[in-house]
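Record type: monomer structure entry
Structure origin: computed from sequence
Chain ID: A
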Amino acid sequence: MSNVFFISDHHFGHKPIIDFESRPFKDVDEMNEVMIEKWNAVVGKQDKVFHLGDFSFLNKEKTQAIVSRLNGYKILILGNHDRGRSRAWWLDAGFDEVSEYPIIYKDFFFLSHEPMYMNFHMPYVNVHGHIHSQKYEGVNYFNVSVEHWDYTPLTFEQIRDAVVPSEEQ
């Protein structure tokens, strides 16, 4: 049985993010390698991963090299730093699917790069990235930026169990 994972904001190849977010890496090469190792430590070949944007700052060849090393069927929801490149570019870089728009998953989880406005009438939980180490308050938001999760993708069950009271599962 395969698992479904969620993660965002790797910023592969982006040296300034180490200082911007106080990432615990001596340089960009170490950051890239550790993040690949942490991904593959939990994601198997048959698993599915939703990457919620801001994947890589590298050129296509170097991005392809990273994507090809990562386990799983990879779906990218474009983030603000990904949008300078076309869907076709990201597909050529190795993603199995690429969406320019948010995705509703299991009729309840609203997957997007940036946090989306959720009023109290909306039944969704917004699984998002973009704001890195910051956090939105409230039960309608779940930040999967790498800084919150030790650079490791989270399973669907980890997110569900954190946001849905156990009697509703």
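Annotation 1: The chain has a mean pLDDT of 93.
Annotation 2: The two ends are 20 Å apart (CA to CA).
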